[in-house]
Design goal:
There is one protein chain. The protein is of the alpha/beta class. It folds into three domains: 165 residues, P-loop containing nucleotide triphosphate hydrolases (Rossmann fold, 3-Layer(aba) Sandwich); 59 residues, Histone, subunit A, CATH 1.10.20.140; 68 residues, Helix Hairpins (Orthogonal Bundle). It is built from 14 helices and seven strands. Strands 1-7-6-2-5-3-4 form a seven-stranded parallel β-sheet, sandwiched between helices. Strand 3, helix 3 and strand 4 form a beta-alpha-beta unit.
C-alpha cells in the first residue's frame, strides 16, 4: 500500500466541475479505491453534487464483484435499500451465489447500462474495487483466445495436487499483476489466466493494457492512510459480525451453497463457512478475515498505484 506518492495525481477542488463543463462525449465517472476506504459514501455525495450544481442526474453501477450476489449483503458491505432510494443503482444482487460472473458478462451488462444512461442524458458512475472488472470498462478488452481442452485439463489436474499453490506461484512469475488480483482459491480465473499466457505468450494484464476504452473518463480514487484503513477495516468487520454475518452464512448453507460456488469464495464467507461446518465459533476467524481483507487492499493498490489517470481524493475534500 506504500504507493509512490511522487507519481500519484491528487484531486484538486473544482476538477470535477471542469470535467462536466467540457461536455465531453460519453462521460463516465469512476470511483475506485481500497476496500473500506469510503467509496459508497463518496458516490452518494458526488451524485448530490452533480444534481445541485449542474442539474444532472447520476446512476450508480456496481463494480464490486462480491456485491453481484443475492443473499450476501452484510459481509460485502452492500449499500442499504434506504440509501439507494433517491438514486438508481445497478448490478447489485443480480446473481445467485452458485453462478459465475465472468469479466465478459460484466462488460456486456455494463456497456448496455451505460448506453441507456447516456440516452437519458444522465451521468453513469462506476463504483467499486474489483480491479479486473473496472479495467474491462475503462480500458476495454481485447479478444482473448479460447484455451484448448487439453491445456485446461492439464492445469486442472495440477491445481488439484496442491489446491492451486504451484499454479498461483507460476502466475506470480509470468503475470504478477493478474496474480495479485486473482486469489489462489479462484480455480477458474487462475487457470484461465494461465491459459491466456500459454496461448498468446503474453500476460493477460498486458493484453488488457493494449485494449482501448470507449468513454470520456473522470476517475477518482479514495485516499486513506494505511493505519486509518486498518482501523476502519477492523471496526467494519466487527460490526459485520454484530449485524449477523454468521447468520447470513448459515442461511446460504441451508440454501445448499458451498465452497464450490463462486459467491462463497469471497473473503469472510469462506472462513465462516468452514468454522460452521467444523462446529467452531465463527468469530474466532475475525482476525484472520481482517488480515485477508488488508492483503486484498494491498493487491488493489498494487494494481492502481501507477495509473496516472486516477485523481486521489482525500477524506472530506470538497468537490
Amino acid at each position: 500500500m506504500n504507493a509512490d506518492n511522487s507519481k500519484k495525481a491528487y484531486y484538486k477542488t473544482g476538477d470535477l466541475g471542469s470535467f462536466i463543463e467540457k461536455n465531453l462525449p460519453k462521460p463516465l465517472i469512476v470511483i475506485l479505491g481500497l476496500t473500506g476506504s469510503g467509496k459508497t459514501e463518496l458516490s452518494l455525495k458526488l451524485a448530490e453534487y452533480l444534481m445541485h450544481n449542474f442539474g444532472l442526474a447520476a446512476e450508480i453501477i456496481n463494480s464490486d464483484s462480491r456485491q453481484f450476489y443475492k443473499g450476501m449483503d452484510i459481509g460485502t458491505a452492500k449499500i442499504s435499500e434506504e440509501e439507494k432510494k433517491w438514486i438508481p443503482h445497478h448490478l447489485f444482487s443480480v446473481l445467485e451465489p452458485d453462478l459465475p460472473c465472468s469479466i465478459f458478462w460484466y462488460q456486456k451488462e455494463v456497456t448496455k447500462l451505460i448506453d441507456r444512461i447516456h440516452r437519458r442524458n444522465e451521468i453513469p458512475m462506476l463504483v467499486g474495487g474489483s480491479m479486473l472488472y473496472i479495467s474491462s470498462i475503462i480500458d476495454g478488452l481485447v479478444p482473448l483466445p479460447t484455451g484448448s481442452e487439453k491445456t485446461r485439463l492439464r492445469l486442472e489436474e495440477k491445481y488439484e495436487t496442491d489446491e492451486g499453490v504451484s499454479l498461483h506461484n507460476l502466475l506470480k512469475k509470468i503475470d504478477p499483476v493478474s496474480a495479485d488480483a486473482i486469489p489462489r482459491q479462484n480455480k477458474k480465473y487462475l487457470i484461465r489466466a494461465l491459459e491466456i499466457c500459454e496461448g498468446t505468450g503474453q500476460p493477460k494484464s498486458e493484453l488488457l493494457k493494449k485494449s482501448k476504452g470507449a468513454y470520456s473518463l473522470f476517475i477518482i480514487g479514495t485516499e486513506i492512510k494505511k493505519d486509518d484503513l486498518a482501523l476502519r477495516i477492523k471496526k467494519r468487520t466487527e460490526k459485520m459480525f454484530e449485524d449477523g454475518w454468521t447468520g447470513e452464512v448459515k442461511k446460504l448453507i441451508d440454501a445448499g451453497y458451498g465452497l464450490s460456488d463462486p459467491g462463497m469464495l469471497s473473503t469472510g464467507y469462506r472462513e465462516i463457512y468452514e468454522c460452521l461446518k467444523k462446529g467452531l465459533e465463527s468469530n474466532k476467524e475475525m482476525n484472520n478475515i481482517i488480515v485477508q481483507t488488508l492483503k486484498y487492499s494491498k493487491r488493489q493498490m498494487t494494481w492502481w498505484k501507477r495509473d496516472l489517470r486516477i485523481r486521489w481524493m482525500l477524506s472530506g475534500q470538497d468537490f
